Amino acid sequence: MSSSCIFCRIIQGEAPAQMVYQDELVSAFRDIRPVAPVHVLVVPNKHIAALSEVTEEDQAILGRMLLVARRVAEQEGIAQSGFRLIVNNGPDANQIVYHLHLHVIGGHRLRFPMG
Ligand code: 5GP
Ligand code: ZN
């Protein structure tokens, strides 16, 4: 955990967020600036700065992030209508928060591709 990391603070309950799911490995909360009707961030409870930093040891966490993304999509009622998962990694992808997170986005028709 890093006290200077906003997502670590949210996970610890030290900063406010609309938490939609939490277990021993991951947490999921609503993005503060949603880009679609549903925009949830799924994050590891452990501080991992970016996808480029993960190791073999993180395999269970990474698998759980995808399972929870599916669970969140069902909870939010977008599992059937469709949704998109995004991981921004590093400067060219405009990663802003350096605590790994999976964007779960849906609730209307999304455009693709981008960039
Ligand atoms: P990325 O790093 O992938 O570019 O995106 C970071 C995301 O985190 C953005 O969509 C941004 O709106 C969201 N975000 C940044 N700070 C906070 C915060 O304090 N609370 C919540 N809930 N979301 C945040
Ligand atoms: Zn963190």
Description:
- By secondary structure, the chain is of the alpha+beta class.
- It has a single domain, classed as HIT-like (HIT family, subunit A, 2-Layer Sandwich).
- Helix content is 20%, strand content 22%.
- It contains two helices and five strands, in the order H-E-E-E-H-E-E.
- A five-stranded antiparallel sheet has the order 1-2-3-5-4, covered by helices on one side.
- Strand 2 (26-30) and strand 3 (38-44) form a beta hairpin.
- It is globular, with a radius of gyration of 14 Å.
- The model has no long low-confidence stretch (mean pLDDT 97).
- The protein binds guanosine-5'-monophosphate (5GP) and zinc ion.
Structural class: alpha+beta
CATH topology category name: HIT family, subunit A
Distance between the termini: 33 Å
CATH superfamily: HIT-like
Q: In the CATH classification, which architecture applies?
A: 2-Layer Sandwich
Question: What oligomeric state is this?
Answer: single chain
Bound molecules: guanosine-5'-monophosphate, zinc ion
Shape: globular
Q: Give the domain tally.
A: 1
Rg to the nearest angstrom?
14 Å
- Largest beta sheet: strand ordering: 1-2-3-5-4
Helix content: 10-25%
Beta-strand percentage range: 15-25%
Poorly predicted ranges: none
Biggest sheet features: 5 strands, antiparallel
Reading the helices and strands in chain order gives: HEEEHEE
The total of helices stands at 2
Number of strands: 5
Q: Please tell me the overall pLDDT.
A: 97
Reading off the top of the CATH hierarchy, the class is best stated as Alpha Beta
Task: Write a concise synopsis of the structure shown.
The chain has 115 residues and is an alpha+beta fold. It has 2 helices and 5 strands.
